[in-house]
Amino acid sequence: MWIADGWNDYEVIDTSGGEKLERWGDYILLRPDPQVIWNTKRKAPEWNKLNGHYHRSSRGGGDWEMFSLPEQWEINYPLDMPFAPKGLTFHLKPFKFKHTGVFPEQAVNWEWFSKVIKESGRKRPKVLNLFAYTGGATMAAAAAGAFVTHVDASKGMVQWAKENASSTGLPQDSVRWIVDDCKKFVEREIRRGNKYDAIIMDPPSYGRGPKGEIWKIEDSVYELISLCGDLLSDEPLFFLVNSYTTGLQPGVLHYMISTVLSKYPGTVEADEIGLPVTRSGLYLPCGASGRFVCEM
Question: Whole-structure pTM over 0.90, yes or no?
């Protein structure tokens, strides 16, 4: 398991009964987590010091119960890269579907690919970030010196990502911001003849594009990975696919990436990603990632 253990402003304090107890900066949140199928004693004092609790509804979705939680606050991730000397800054706010604006387990991937970019020695390699959300991966790649094309179907998410990038202090010309359906954007880029040195994708299990396009990961992800294979340059740096869908195990990600990128010499790895749990000293699984690094 690849562990995101570089945070100072975030931690999973404890887990029990389908919920995880987290510290986000100065605030304690309690949110549901389907991986937490155990019931352990809730001894950590923070269980009784909540600032926000997301209650899952039996009808789907849910609602936040707030206890002295601001509408928005900031946390920082200490990524040591040339164009982010103070690390990455994230604006947080609780919104529907229990999210806050950051998937902290992805920090283990930010560390990995930003190092690949930095150590490549290339000047401004072109990176495509699909389903780019609030820009964690975009900022990490740009901080390492890449020029990033950030694509997400939600105008609101792209605006949120822009605010994060501005607060981080990234150069304004380091990111191209695109609001579009990811598959349609990739198809147009292929027709235009554009190429990228690296591709990151973090597809949702289910979603809709800006014009109502339906995305279901089991039906669509292999086709999208195949299309993205046609977007890579002749000497690419890396390819990264993330998944939070139970059916897409690390072995499945490994197989898809290996099949699509077989023409390139390199290494494919896939594993679970996770977060350390302070109280137990164990690790909470948080999905899976497949990585390819070209060796030319």
Answer: yes
